[in-house]
Amino acid sequence: MIDHLIPILAGTLAAATPLIFAGLGELVAERSGVINLGVEGMMLIGAIAGFAFAAETGYGAVTGLPAGALAGAAAAMIFAFFALSLSANQAACGLALTIFGIGLSAFIGQHYVSYSLPGLQPISIPLLSDIPLLGPVLFRQDWVVYLSLIAFALVTWTLAKTRLGLLLKAVGESPEAAHAIGYPVLGIRYGAVAFGGAMAGIAGAYLSTVYTPLWVQNMSAGRGWIAVALVVFATWKPTRLLLGAYLFGAVTILQFHAQGLGIDVPVQFLAALPYVATIVVLVVISRDRKLLQLNLPASLGKPFLP
């Protein structure tokens, strides 16, 4: 049993990494009052940008992840221009961005269908990696997995302990009041949306340069939508988002180990399991309206005109 448990738990951390990046970015954007449903599109744009840059430079994820972050942030700025500056419907703009990202990544990715990258080797932390069970799971991962935990810690600290976190919350709760005392509401929202796009781009670049280091059309496979759902599942709390990402990561990775565990379930059902779990979780969470209203930014999705 242990022989199966270790690779499942280790794989869970890797499978959850893109969800952590994309989910944290969307959480920050929504804390400022902006809901961006284009996470899937930004992930795909980041994935193809990261893969193309890594393939052309030969440096793999070292250059692929920054390229993905820049591409994701640029795509987010397109969304921000229409949704914030022009006060267009945020949901419609996000859906349009997803459609745009799917098409653009497929068009650019045609040239890279036959390419593959070397990926990343796990980093074994001395002494800690030799701890039974926990060592191979927690301390033999690639550096991007550790980077996701650092990003989680920084976002959590920023939101809870810094002036910037208070500004984001103020803008998300009452942009009119924040504007009345002199804060640049649109500037803060632009920054939050750009951060969300960069994080989604990193998530996509991780998929294409590390997790499965080759280009496949639509390789995000709905992870962007799961990241958006995770923010609601977490009720806009970073710690709950982290736990939710690992939960969905475990559901995702379990389908690859089900046959080895003797689970006689159709492959199609296992492939659909993460999305079924997403729907079930959202239905359960939405029934508790008090919990949702407790942390829901009051101006989420509402346009603001100075």
TrEMBL record:
Organism superkingdom: Bacteria
Entry's Gene Ontology molecular function annotations: transmembrane transporter activity
InterPro entries tied to this protein: ABC_transp_permease (IPR001851)
Location in the cell: Cell membrane
Membrane topology value: Multi-pass membrane protein
Location (main, coarse): membrane
Any single Pfam family the record assigns to this protein: BPD_transp_2
Bilayer-spanning residue ranges: 6-25, 37-55, 61-84, 91-113, 143-160, 181-208, 214-234, 241-259, 265-285
CC annotations in GO: plasma membrane
UniProt keyword terms in alphabetical order: Cell membrane, Membrane, Transmembrane, Transmembrane helix
Protein name: ABC transporter permease
